[in-house]
Specification:
The chain has 15 helices and four strands. It is mainly alpha-helical and about 325 residues long. The termini are far apart.
């Protein structure tokens, strides 16, 4: 902010018009685009001042960071078209690169961090990855098992039996009434209302949701179109599998801070199902559908919290 306010070059007039100094944000045009973007979608600020002139958000994007005690996890936001393309590349498998450094956390920053719960969540997430990768099972069954596991983990957590969380597996399927654990057309159509009631960041999102609801409105669990969309084969199934793993990696262990274990797992599971619905309803390729979905959902705390709240209500 200080640099923008004191800029004396040719770009200073643009900064005065494009920055709301009172709120500390870039102004937005009526179409929701940042005032720094030109008609080609490129950033004039970066062109004029270079990368060092970017704010932290723009400089770090599309990198996403999650902070835990003694652990920092980086991923790429799938709202970036190139990150979406990389993830969906058939030659790319979802994997981790781990490194160690000598940096130490500020003790005050993680004073209330519960390492026991985090260990259990991280261990559970590893089991979820194994299930997500088990291609001997249909993808929907893998997702239902992961959701069931999260439901059981939530029960242990709510009862205060943290050690029992380590014994919970993905293998046993339970029937939890009024939940989205098991795939159903009715449940997916009902949950679509969460997306329809969210904050809209780009007008094309509203059109996508409308087309999705119209397409699936008169279908059912037995409809050939529904069966084909929800049970993709081969390369398509592998792409959705990688999206599932990516979302679990990004969100699941964050439950250490709020205890929303089931809802964080369902955020990953149901997002994959919504993507299946959208892609088949609109005819857009999966890459475009993915980064549009991520841009609308993951870049708004209000929208993420709406999904979390919806699945919190499914718990007893």
């Amino acid at each position: 902010m200080q640099r923008y306010e004191t800029e004396k070059g040719n770009f200073s007039a643009r900064l005065k018009q494009g920055v709301d100094y009172e709120e500390g944000v870039f102004c937005q045009h009526q179409n929701g685009r940042c005032a720094m973007l030109n008609e080609s979608g490129l950033c004039d600020l970066q062109t004029a001042l270079g990368e060092s002139g970017l704010c932290d958000t723009c400089r770090l994007y599309p990198r996403h960071t999650e902070e835990f005690q003694d652990l920092r996890e980086y991923s790429l936001s799938l709202s970036c078209p190139e990150a979406a393309r990389m993830l969906l590349d058939p030659a790319y498998d979802f994997d981790f690169t781990e490194t160690e450094d000598d940096l130490e956390d500020d003790p005050a920053e993680f004073e209330d961090f519960d390492f026991l719960i985090f260990d259990q969540l991280e261990y559970a997430r590893e089991k979820m990855y194994v299930t997500a990768s088990d291609q001997s099972l249909p993808l929907q069954e893998r997702m239902s098992r992961i959701a069931t596991m999260a439901y059981k983990l939530q029960e242990c957590f709510d009862e205060g039996d943290i050690l029992a969380m380590g014994d919970v597996t993905c293998e046993e399927l339970v029937s939890a009434p009024n939940t989205g654990i098991m795939l159903s057309h009715a449940n997916c159509m009902e949950s679509l209302q969460v997306l329809e009631n969210m904050e809209v960041l780009e007008p094309s999102w509203t059109d996508t949701l409308k087309a999705t609801r119209n397409y699936w409105q008169n279908q059912s669990d037995d409809s050939p179109a529904w069966q084909e969309a929800m049970h993709p084969a081969g390369a398509s199934s592998f792409c959705y599998e990688k999206i599932l793993k990516s979302l679990l990696f990004t969100y699941f262990c964050g439950a250490v801070y709020d205890g929303e274990i089931y809802a964080k797992a369902m955020l990953a599971v149901q997002s994959v199902r919504w993507l299946m619905m959208m892609q088949n309803a609109t005819g857009m390729d999966l890459e475009k559908t993915l980064y549009l979905f991520s841009r609308e959902v993951e870049h708004s705390d209000l929208n993420i919290n709406s999904i979390i709240s919806y699945y919190e209500k499914e718990l007893p």
